[in-house]
C-alpha cells in the first residue's frame, strides 16, 4: 500500500544490475551519501531516483573501496548512529 504522495519505483522500471552507472548517477549517489549517510539506503535510492536500495548499497561499497568516495562518509555515519 502506498501513502498519498509517495511513489515507489518498481524493479522493472530500474536499470539492470548489470547496467553501468552513469556519471550523473555517481554524482547523485555521492551527494545522497553525504546527505543521508552510509547505510540509509532507502533515502539514498530515492535521492538517486534510478536505482534501488541494494544497487545503491553495492555501488557505494565499490566507490568506497576504490577511494572514489571518502571513507569519512562511512565513519561519520557510524559515529552518528552509534554515538
TrEMBL record:
Every SANT domain range: 16-68
UniProt protein name: Uncharacterized protein
Region (Disordered): 1-22
Organism of origin: Umbelopsis vinacea
Domain HTH myb-type: 18-68
SMART domains, per database record: SANT
Location of the Myb-like domain: 18-64
Amino acid at each position: 500500500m502506498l501513502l498519498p504522495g509517495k511513489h515507489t519505483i518498481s524493479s522493472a522500471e530500474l536499470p539492470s544490475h548489470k547496467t553501468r552507472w552513469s556519471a550523473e548517477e555517481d554524482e547523485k549517489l555521492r551527494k545522497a551519501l553525504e546527505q543521508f549517510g552510509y547505510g540509509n539506503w532507502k533515502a539514498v535510492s530515492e535521492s538517486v531516483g534510478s536505482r534501488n536500495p541494494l544497487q545503491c548499497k553495492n555501488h557505494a561499497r565499490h566507490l568506497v573501496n576504490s577511494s572514489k568516495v571518502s571513507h569519512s562518509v562511512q565513519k561519520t555515519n557510524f559515529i552518528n548512529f552509534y554515538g
